[in-house]
């Protein structure tokens, strides 16, 4: 019996990519054909193998196969930890935020070196508490409303950890941050 030569370039079989089966919801939960993924092992696998390509498509690498992810909003969902650090839905600690945005619906988006992430809505009260006005006092409801309405952003009077809260439109997020919310075959 001859032993195969494994020193040569071993190629993956030609496996088609999968579209429309896997999605990421607004709280960082995985969904398979619309149903929540509850199995801890599968969640761990999805989190570990989640990445993007140069075209801004996000996918899970499953051996030779790419399972493209439909995004409910952004490719990352971020949690605000007690010490104000950020953790991605995958469980990875992220770099500190480099920009903060508020859309017309009151969603907070934070840009980190890994990309843009939607702040989990369960962390909005803590985020708002940490925001300040330009003078160091608490940020007013009127200032948040101005940013949501498309106010100038920088100089809006709302600051979070030294970052001015900037206005952004939901419809502009994917193009601005170069990701595909619904990868096409």
UniProtKB/TrEMBL annotation:
InterPro entries according to UniProt: DUF2944 (IPR021332)
A Pfam family the protein falls into: DUF2944
Protein name: DUF2946 family protein
Organism: Aromatoleum buckelii
């Amino acid at each position: 019996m001859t032993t195969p030569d494994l020193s040569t370039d071993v190629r993956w079989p030609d496996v088609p990519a999968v579209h429309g089966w896997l999605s990421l919801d607004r709280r960082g939960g995985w969904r398979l054909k619309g149903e929540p993924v509850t199995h801890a092992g599968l969640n761990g696998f999805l989190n570990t193998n989640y990445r993007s390509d140069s075209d801004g498509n996000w996918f899970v690498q499953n051996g030779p196969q790419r399972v493209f992810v439909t995004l409910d909003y952004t490719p990352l969902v971020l949690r605000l930890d007690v010490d104000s650090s950020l953790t991605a839905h995958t469980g990875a600690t992220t770099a500190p935020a480099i920009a903060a945005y508020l859309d017309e619906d009151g969603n907070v988006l934070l840009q980190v070196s890994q990309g843009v992430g939607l702040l989990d809505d369960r962390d909005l009260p803590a985020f708002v508490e940490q925001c300040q006005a330009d003078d160091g006092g608490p940020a007013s409801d009127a200032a948040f409303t101005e940013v949501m309405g498309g106010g100038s952003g920088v100089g809006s009077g709302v600051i979070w950890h030294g970052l001015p809260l900037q206005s952004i439109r939901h419809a502009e997020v994917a193009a601005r941050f170069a990701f595909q919310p619904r990868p096409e075959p």
